[in-house]
């Protein structure tokens, strides 16, 4: 009797939980792998891909061996949904990549430009004609980890300025603030993620 109860507990509770957790991990790895490829970190993508598929095979194998149990389907689909969220959240915390920030302002941008330069950012500015008159367009290429700092600077000097942010595949010979984490390279954001309280 005890074996039957234990078997029922395993198939109805423990195994669906394992499928759910396995799916979270494999989809998280898959999301991060795709992001690494898009960022040009091709040497990391195969490592994540290997573990992604190994875990996926476990999860899908359990579902196929229990095709009549709806709980497994729900656990599989729920893990997939949560894995997407977790993968994106981790990638945001790692803050890998380079971005271009384009700022368009009617207001004189001299103070904003000078402050960006003093903070170590490279800046290019041009005069242009907008729909309602003359404007100044300011470009700066930044590391993704510095995005919130840049947005804060823009709002501080010109809250009404229009700005857009785009991903950059690669950039060379740019001017960037000094590395804040040094040895971790592309994993500066990951080190911040692993700290207590982050």
From TrEMBL:
The chain crosses the membrane at residues 43-64, 70-90. It is found in: Cell membrane. Residues 121-170 form the DUF2179 domain. Keywords: Cell membrane, Membrane, Transmembrane, Transmembrane helix. It is a multi-pass membrane protein. Residues 31-88 form the DUF5698 domain. The keyword Protease does not apply. One of its GO terms (cellular component) is plasma membrane. It comes from the Archaea. This is Uncharacterized protein. It comes from Candidatus Methanoperedens nitratireducens.
